[in-house]
Specification:
Elements lengths: L2 E4 L4 H11 L16 E8 L3 E10 L2 E10 L5 H16 L17 H9 L4 H12 L3 H18 L6 E8 L1 E2 L11 E2 H4 L3 H22 L2 E9 L7 H14 L7 E7 L6 H9 L4 E4 L6 H6 L6 H14 L3 E8 L6 H14 L3 E6 L18 H17 L3 E6 L10 E5 L6 H7 L5 E4 L4 E5 L5 E5 L4 H6 L1 H13 L2
Parallel strand pairs: 1-2, 5-8, 5-15, 6-7, 8-9, 9-10, 10-11, 11-12
Antiparallel strand pairs: 2-3, 3-4, 12-14, 13-14, 16-17
Bound molecules: iron/sulfur cluster (SF4).
Iron/sulfur cluster (SF4) binds next to loops.
Length: 480
């Protein structure tokens, strides 16, 4: 679908909204003279008024809208809102209102968190989403609940705190929906030891930088990929290096993403717990074995349950379990059954994702039929009802591009067990120092902006460029 801008150049704001409101219409280039299907977003800047118009034509129907704003009140966010709201109103002549209204960003809770931190009540924060951004009452409520958890988590943070992320970009096999640069261990097992050698160098270097900068580590998250693709001995070496080089005495949360249940056994789970990790993530994605086989996850629901019991025996304070709504071959009944089995295990956290397909995923090519948007909506609505009935509340929430339907991912927790790293990272509340292949360090600058530093994506590149990685860490810490 074409998009032409006249009188302004805020393409990102309007384009993201168009993608969110018309996900089935691919973006196309547009130029004057403009005709046929597509959208035109126009801004006229007068002495007193800024006037935005939007005209959208699709399949022979046209929607139009016009709004204005006093030029004196038109700072950058207000101008952007004017353009987006005008586009949204024109689009609503052509389609039903989406649950997320005119919000197209991946972090809708930032708006409600800011409102609460500025002293607004939860009811006022909810109203802000409903009236200014046309968000449905249900989604507004979810956002505010997640933001209330964020406000609590913020109280644990001190100005000198950072979080540390360590990436292990290896997995036993590749899931059909994965677009991450994870290397299958079947093909790349020879890289594991050299990868760990390089990672230990980055850990030691980062430890020096943390000490010299006076920064303290509040949460530590070992993610992937699947970190537990490593053997017990390799995990011990990694976690020993973290303990030796980085001061972990101020930690309030230490998570390891077990991810695939087939990589977990009692010995590994005990090793990880003995090294100080208190939060383990075990991700079934579904408890339907046929669906697991279809998406290339070579484990069963029985293995998930066994891994969970082994984690409990190893003594973790908190266990998270991830499910995905919208996998091929799944349906609302089967999804509800997966959740029922997960809830019977009583993990502290349950994260309900919606399938998001990106280029690079095998499923992206469309070889498998996926559940309809209506079916996914039923799965998510049923999940919310069951989770609330079991005493869980939402503690973080985000959206992704390429997600099926107008949905979101939500982390649910039992009282007092919110996953802090997830909140700090998703709400961008403080700097995240990230290590390993594919990791991204994000530094929160004093003026509110973020500076990002990317490590090389693939393990082989990471090994070859480890000296550059260390030099880049120096640059990141100069901003801290
Ligand atoms: S476990 Fe996660 S990172 Fe690994 S292949 Fe599957 S989706 Fe990708």
């Amino acid at each position: 679908m074409k998009l032409l801008l006249r009188g302004h150049d805020d393409r990102y704001a309007v384009e993201q909204l168009q993608l969110a409101l018309f996900p089935e219409e691919p973006m196309e280039p547009a130029a004057e003279p403009f005709s046929g299907d597509g959208a035109v977003s126009t801004l006229h800047t007068g002495a007193v008024w800024l006037t935005a118009t939007a005209e959208i034509t699709l399949h022979g129907k046209t929607g139009r809208a016009c709004r204005r704003l006093r030029a004196a009140e038109a700072d950058v966010p207000a101008r952007r809102r004017l353009l987006q709201n005008t586009y949204y109103e024109a689009a609503m002549c052509l389609r039903e209102p989406p649950a997320w209204g005119s919000l197209s960003g991946v972090r809708p809770t930032k708006l409600t968190t800011r409102a609460l931190l500025e002293g607004k009540t939860p009811a006022e924060a909810e109203k802000l989403l409903r009236t200014r951004y046309h968000v449905s009452p249900e989604r507004s409520r979810l956002c505010v609940e997640a933001s209330e958890a964020t406000v609590q988590a913020a109280q644990l943070l001190r100005p000198q705190d950072v979080s540390v992320y360590v990436g292990i970009p290896f997995c036993p096999t590749r899931c059909a929906y994965c677009s991450f640069v994870s290397s299958s261990i079947e093909r790349f097992s020879g890289l594991l030891e050299p990868y760990l050698d390089a990672l230990v160098r980055e850990i030691a270097h980062t430890g020096d930088l943390l000490r010299a900068s006076g920064r303290t580590v509040r949460t530590l998250y070992i993610g992937g990929g699947t970190p537990t693709t490593l053997s017990s001995a390799q995990l011990r070496r990694l976690m020993e290096a973290l303990r030796t080089h980085i001061d972990l005495t101020e930690l309030v949360e230490y998570t390891v993403e077990g991810g695939r249940p087939d990589t977990l056994d009692a010995e590994k789970l005990e090793t990880i717990a003995s090294m100080g990790c208190g939060r383990m993530s075990i991700n079934p994605q579904t408890m339907n074995d046929a669906v697991l086989a279809r998406v290339g996850r070579r484990h069963t629901a029985a293995q998930t349950a066994a891994a969970y019991e082994a984690a409990r025996a190893a003594g973790y304070d908190a266990v998270n379990m991830d499910l995905i709504a919208g996998l091929p071959g799944d349906d609302p009944g089967s999804f509800a059954d997966s959740l029922r089995q997960v809830l019977a295990l009583a993990p502290e956290n349950v994260t309900v994702h919606t399938l998001a397909l990106k280029k690079g995923a095998d499923l992206y090519a469309g070889r498998m039929e996926l559940p309809s948007a209506d079916a996914v909506a039923q799965m998510l609505a049923g999940a919310e009802t069951s989770l609330r009935a079991a005493g869980y509340t939402p503690y973080y929430l985000y959206r992704q591009k390429y997600m099926s339907g107008s949905f979101e991912n939500i982390g649910w927790c039992r009282p007092g067990t919110a996953g802090l790293y997830n909140i700090y990272m998703m709400e961008e509340m403080h700097s995240i120092v990230s290590l390993g292949g594919g990791a991204m360090t994000k530094i929160n600058l004093p003026d509110g902006r973020l500076e990002r530093f990317h490590n090389p994506k693939f393990p082989q590149q990471y090994l070859e460029r480890i000296d550059d990685v260390l030099a880049q860490k120096d640059a990141a810490f100069r901003l801290l």
